[in-house]
Design brief:
This protein is α+β, with helices and mostly antiparallel strands and 98 residues long. Helix content is 42%, strand content 33%. The protein has a four-stranded antiparallel sheet. β2 and β3 form a beta hairpin.
């Protein structure tokens, strides 16, 4: 499985519901697991800066990663970016091949 990073920025409407954050986050996670059962979450962070949350997860392919982003957008994310993450040792190996 490939590793992906999901960067999420919430809409102002959803951001204003911080007291409901735990319930909203649990509902989002439940929907992701229901619609993308092969996704395995590794870490979840709240951020200070341009994005509100960062999730590190594994998915079988880029289409599944796209679904995770789409589910985030459908649940109140103004912006949801999924980035491919390559382990550092693999990056070093790839660099040796060029």
């Amino acid at each position: 499985m490939a590793t992906y990073i999901l960067m999420t920025k919430l809409t102002p409407v959803v951001s204003a519901k911080m007291k409901e954050r735990e319930e909203l986050g649990a509902a989002w996670l439940e929907e992701v697991h229901r619609k993308c059962p092969d996704v395995k979450f590794i870490a979840h962070y709240g951020l200070l800066g341009g994005f509100d949350f960062m999730d590190i997860y594994e998915a079988p392919d880029e289409e599944t990663a796209a679904k995770v982003s789409m589910i985030s957008r459908a649940n109140g994310a103004a912006l949801a970016e999924s980035w491919t993450a390559i382990p550092y040792k693999r990056v070093v190996q790839l660099a040796k091949e060029i």
